[in-house]
Design brief:
With 418 residues, the chain is an alpha/beta fold. Helix content is 39%, strand content 19%. The chain folds into 3 domains: 89 residues, no CATH class; 111 residues, Pdz3 Domain; 150 residues, 2-enoyl-CoA Hydratase, Chain A, domain 1. The chain contains 14 helices and 16 strands. A hairpin with a 5-residue loop joins strand 6 and strand 7. Helix 2 packs parallel to helix 4.
């Protein structure tokens, strides 16, 4: 009897520790009104589609009315997120103050054919790097991605990347909203390891104020091992390059931000490519979230100047290539400079300016772009599909294979391919 009571008390205390305040309802309503006003101001395309504008206003009015009721933070944040996502501008989103949130002690990476685990410090035994995730809270990764499509603006590729970049499948506020947290406050996780054995675990949430830094370090190690071109430290530097004589040159960057150092590095890269007679150039924009269009044009001009001496030019993308990265790929294709290699990615919307601010009453972080809603451009047209697939599969990860390295070994004109 004492054992049973102790177990019940433990469960109750765990549940109580995860309770969130029901919130300041007038403050929440005020911030939702500010979100709605800001979206109507920024998303000028709504004014040309009266039916969509009316639908947005109805949704905003409904959510503002719902926010008058007591509800936990995660449910309120779901209202704000789905309202913003309804306009389908993947440059516009809202995020909570994640530093004080609870997380599962685990990270993930979305391979081309499934979701895999990336253990972090404190991850439970029984979870290894590259285990295939079969279900979280009884729902498959595909089902979770579909549900997150209401929560994250963007197409399916952008949704998957965003879910991993911000660890939405470990954050309690997201998993509560998705309905995968059980009565005890835990999450059931089902994985299949590389031997084909299925493991079923129950993971408790932990208060991890430094979770994002720990998660980022684990994912960076994963990226250096499986995603980055071999010998290119993509996660430890902002940009850089490597040239293999008479084979290929790779220039990578984490963001299209202007700097004199970047200009000088780009010039040295192309000079070295020419001197070492490397016939192939790869611009690696995997996991690059975007930046300034002026920097994109610098890359285009450098490629135009050096094209005569090159056999092939590739822009290497993955699901995390976004905004300015997609713009570079579109320029390379449109100008006939080369091809796009890698994996499909998200949208490049016409953006005229961006601004970010923290909502005054609830602290939700709002980031917005002034531009055309995605529906005006066409959903499928906003998806970039490489002509040269370079896919990292779950099997590759479990076998320790770097898919980009495998592709580079067999580039046309490379010594290994002759």
């Amino acid at each position: 009897m004492r054992t049973l009571l102790a177990a019940l008390l433990t469960t109750l205390l765990a549940a109580l520790s995860l309770l969130q305040p029901l919130g300041n309802m007038p403050a929440r309503q005020h911030d939702l009104r500010q979100i709605a006003r800001t979206i109507e101001r920024d998303e000028w395309g709504l004014a040309y589609e009266p039916a969509r504008l009316a639908a947005f206003r109805r949704l905003a009015a409904r959510d503002i009315a719902l926010a008058a009721r007591p509800m936990p933070d995660w449910r309120y944040f779901g209202l704000a997120a789905t309202l913003v996502a309804s306009v389908r501008n993947s440059h516009t989103s809202v995020w909570p103050d994640v530093e004080e949130r609870y997380y599962l002690p685990l990270a993930y990476y979305w391979a081309s054919d499934g979701l895999v685990t990336v253990p972090i410090a404190g991850s439970p035994r029984g979870i290894a790097l590259g285990d295939r995730v079969l279900a979280i809270g009884g729902r498959t990764p595909a089902q979770l991605a579909q549900a997150l499509g209401r929560y994250i603006p963007g197409n399916g590729y952008n949704v998957r990347f965003t879910a991993c970049r911000f660890e939405l499948l470990s954050a309690r506020y997201t998993l509560e909203w998705l309905g995968v947290v059980d009565r005890a406050g835990d999450v059931a996780l089902t994985v299949e390891n590389r031997q084909g054995k299925v493991e079923r675990l129950r993971l408790p949430f932990e208060r991890l104020p430094d979770y994002l830094a720990v998660q980022q370090a684990a994912v960076d190690r994963f990226v250096d091992r499986f995603v980055a071109p071999p010998g290119v430290p993509v996660t430890s530097q902002v940009f850089g390059w490597r040239v293999v004589p008479q084979d290929y040159g790779v220039f990578w960057l984490r963001r299209f931000d202007p700097s004199r150092a970047l200009d000088a590095s780009l010039a040295r890269f192309f000079a070295t490519v020419q001197r070492e007679r490397a016939p192939n150039v790869v611009i690696d924009v995997q996991r690059d979230p975007g930046g300034m269009e002026s920097v994109v044009q610098e890359f285009v001009q450098a490629l135009v100047s050096g094209k005569a001496a090159l056999r092939h030019v590739y822009v290497l993308t993955d699901w995390g290539s976004f905004s300015a990265s997609v713009l570079l790929a579109e320029n390379v294709l449109g100008d006939g400079l080369g091809e796009v290699a890698g994996q499909p990615t998200g949208e490049d919307l016409e953006v005229y300016g961006e601004h970010n601010f923290s909502l005054p009453d609830t602290g939700i972080w709002y980031q917005a772009a002034v531009g055309a809603p995605q529906d005006m451009l066409g959903y499928e047209a906003a998806t970039l599909r490489p002509s040269v697939p370079v896919a990292l599969s779950v099997e590759d990860i479990q076998r320790g294979v770097n898919a980009v390295g495998r592709w580079l070994e067999h580039l046309p004109g490379a010594p290994a391919a002759r």
